[in-house]
Specification:
alpha+beta, Nucleotidyltransferase, domain 5, Lipocalin, six-stranded mixed sheet, Hsp_70_fam, ATP-binding, Hsp70 protein, ATP-dependent protein folding chaperone
């Protein structure tokens, strides 16, 4: 056995930015940080000798020598060489320079060289483009795997967003990046996911929204001070070029701020004024650009056939523009899900996609084991946490068809117009696919286990990740929590779930939401045929809902008990319900 620790990278080589996720064996993937940001500018600058500089150093050098700078190397994938000032390096060498910069940072962080990389590419790329990308990567990394971007995004969806694409089910991946837009329909096929239909717009991205914001300013300041605006529109001096860059950076920042708030101000250099900008103005500027993406989305969904998709997932940093989700819902009739940190989704998903995923049908149950009958997915939380004055009727909230999340308590908070689906505990749910995943044939031994209890469930489990679907202002939204508590299932048939107050977080229409649960739930449980049933539940503690750091509602923790399904995978307990998914890790402690 090799004693070399595997160091893997998932890289999303974007038109404007490159993102990399580092996976060191035995640890969860983490983003590489470049100069304080996970977004590495993809731009490359060549000095007179031909030496290639990457990232923010390249942006800085371009201020004095713009002729030697290429901001979007990926757009030159069809060309043999690029002209960078006096240098004319091969396109593969320019791309390799970006990848080499990533590799160097990964080695610095991991303390050892990268052993393998998974590199993503647009689904529509033909063999020649893929070969050029792979050739560039092989000059940097010993092992290279290519994965289409929508397949990588689907890998993230099922592994990290805790959604289940049923066999034959189709989802839409709406990838709105800084420089380009791509939309794909991905289907869960027997031997892995496949792209059914895809289309890309190379001239449509978040930078176009930035340009539209600048155009809004031009309508005012070009008339008010034509000479000053001309210096910004067509800079000649170094100082004017810096001012123009400041203006465009301000436009991008304003766009991002307006994804979280309803108004902001934007400094206009040279003119030296603060321009107010509101969400409605951003929507007005972004709408024509988003309409182009919707036309492409309609074409792709229609071309894929198969009726309404099981889900719509937004990835790419520019997909945070609130109007994007609203227009998509109006277009497709399926509420889209904005994934957490959408600019990181493809890079992390590449690692999962290359390793294989749970979209394929599971193996048949081993002798002596049993999955749930007919692959049915009963959802079963021990749930609660409602805020007065409204009681919490047990009613499932609407979700994407065919996607397993959690059936949970629904609370309508009239004061804020929020429909909140609250989860505070679960006894484990198995999202079955055609007969279900088998339980392990050799569960960890546990002494003196009461009859009617599955040995693989008994133990102390850390809630590594919980994803809950809540409905905020009519939009289903994933709330994500990490290390939120401890579940203990004892051999005598009693259980305890302790919540530590770690928040479940989400961003909705620019607002930062947090659901904080602090307390414990106790009771008895039993198992039978992969189903777990709780009884005698008692809850103590509090449940709070915060918006932008301010308490919106709070109340006592409450609980109800329903049957659940679960899946044991060695020291991992997977939980998937109609509106939630979770991953619990065995701690090794004695319950």
């Amino acid at each position: 056995m090799s004693d070399v620790t595997a160091v893997r990278l998932g890289i999303d080589l974007g038109t404007s930015h490159t993102v990399a996720m580092l996976a060191v064996e035995g640890r969860p993937p983490t983003p590489l940080i470049f100069d304080g940001s996970p977004l590495l500018p993809s731009g490359v600058w060549a000095d007179p000798s031909g030496r290639l500089i990457v990232g923010r150093d390249a942006l800085h050098a371009a201020q004095t020598d713009p002729a030697g700078f290429e901001p979007h190397p990926k757009r030159h994938i069809d060309e043999e060489t690029m002209l960078l000032g006096a240098a004319q390096p091969a396109t593969e060498a320019v791309i390799a320079a970006v990848l080499g910069h990533v590799a160097a940072e990964a080695r610095r962080v991991a303390g050892r060289p990268v052993t393998a990389v998974v590199l993503t590419h647009p689904a529509a790329w033909a063999a020649r483009r893929r070969q050029r990308l792979e050739s560039a990567a092989r000059t940097v990394f010993p092992e290279v795997t290519l994965v289409p971007e929508p397949i990588a995004a689907a890998g993230y969806v099922v592994h990290r967003a805790a959604a289940r694409i049923p066999p034959g089910g189709r989802v839409v991946i709406y990838d709105f990046g800084a420089g380009t837009f791509d939309v794909s329909v991905v289907q869960a096929a027997p031997h892995g996911p496949r792209v059914v239909a895809s289309e890309g717009l190379d001239d449509t991205g978040g930078t176009d929204v930035d340009a539209a914001v600048v155009e809004l300013l031009a309508r005012t300041y070009a008339r008010r001070d034509p000479a000053a605006w001309q210096r910004l529109a067509a800079p000649v001096t170094r100082a004017d070029r810096r001012a123009r860059r400041t203006l465009w950076e301000g436009a991008r920042t304003a766009k991002e701020v307006l994804s979280r708030t309803t108004s902001t101000v934007l400094h206009v250099p040279i003119v030296d004024e603060e321009a107010p900008l509101g969400r409605e103005q951003l929507d007005q500027a972004a709408r024509p650009i988003l309409e182009r993406t919707l036309v492409a989305t309609r074409r792709v969904v229609a071309g894929a056939g198969g009726g309404a998709p099981a889900g719509v997932f937004l990835v790419g940093g520019a997909s945070r523009v609130p109007l994007a989700a609203s227009l998509l819902f109006q277009t497709l009739g399926v509420r889209p899900t904005l994934l957490d940190q959408p600019e990181l989704v493809v890079a992390e998903g590449a690692l999962y996609a290359a390793a294989g995923g749970p979209w394929a049908p599971p193996p048949p149950p081993a002798p002596g084991t049993a999955g749930p009958p007919g692959g049915r997915v009963p959802a079963a939380p021990v749930s609660g946490g409602t805020a007065p004055p409204v009681s919490a009727p047990s009613a499932p909230a609407a979700g994407g068809a065919g996607l397993s999340r959690q059936r949970a308590v629904t609370v309508t908070v009239a004061a804020t117009g929020v429909l909140l689906v609250v989860l505070v505990a679960s006894l484990g749910v198995h999202a079955a696919v055609r007969g279900g995943w088998p339980l392990p044939a050799d569960p960890s031994p546990t002494p003196s286990i009461s009859p009617g209890l599955d040995p693989c469930v008994v133990g102390v489990w850390k809630q590594r990740k919980y994803v809950i679907e809540n409905t905020i202002d009519g939009v289903p939204t994933d709330f994500t929590g990490y290390d939120t508590g401890i579940d203990t299932y004892r051999a005598d048939g009693t259980y305890e779930v302790v919540y530590t107050g770690s928040p479940f977080r989400a961003t909705v229409l620019g607002d930062r939401w947090e659901h904080i649960v602090d307390g414990r739930i106790t009771g008895h449980y039993r198992t039978a045929d992969g189903e777990l049933t709780a009884s005698g539940t008692v809850a103590t503690g509090t449940s709070r809902l915060l918006v932008n750091g301010e308490v919106d509602t709070s109340g006592s923790l409450t609980a109800s008990a329903d049957p659940s399904r679960y899946e044991c995978r060695g020291d991992t307990l997977l939980i998937h319900g109609e509106f939630y998914g979770a991953e619990l890790i065995r701690t090794g402690e004695t319950p």
